[in-house]
Write a structure and sequence with these properties.
- Keywords: Membrane, Transmembrane, Transmembrane helix.
- This is Phospholipase D-like protein.
- It comes from Natronomicrosphaera hydrolytica.
- The structure is a single chain.
- The chain has four helices and no strands.
- It is an all-alpha fold and 87 residues long.
- The chain has one domain.
């Protein structure tokens, strides 16, 4: 799948025939969906002790469902800035 997206991106950048706006939007949408899915799976696979509050994980899940355009970016920023406890 990443090879197909790379080819589509290359076609758009080089302006090759067949590279339409629709193909570009499809490629961007697929990349965004993959990023959303990776972040959501990371959330679900994370242990509960990773979150500071007892309801943080369910709240993040609700944010992913109801605010799907911004949730993966917000979660990615949050998980990369929280202080991880030493084990």
């Amino acid at each position: 799948m990443s090879l197909v997206l790379a080819i589509l991106l290359l076609m758009v950048v080089l302006g090759m025939p067949g590279a339409t706006v629709g193909m570009s939007l499809t490629a961007v949408s697929l990349i965004w969906l993959a990023f959303w899915l990776v972040q959501f799976l990371d959330l679900m696979a994370s242990p509960t002790h990773r979150f500071p509050g007892p309801y943080d994980k369910p709240i993040w899940a609700a944010v992913f469902i109801f605010l799907f355009p911004v949730a993966p970016v917000a979660f990615w920023i949050w998980k990369n800035t929280i202080e991880r406890p030493a084990h």
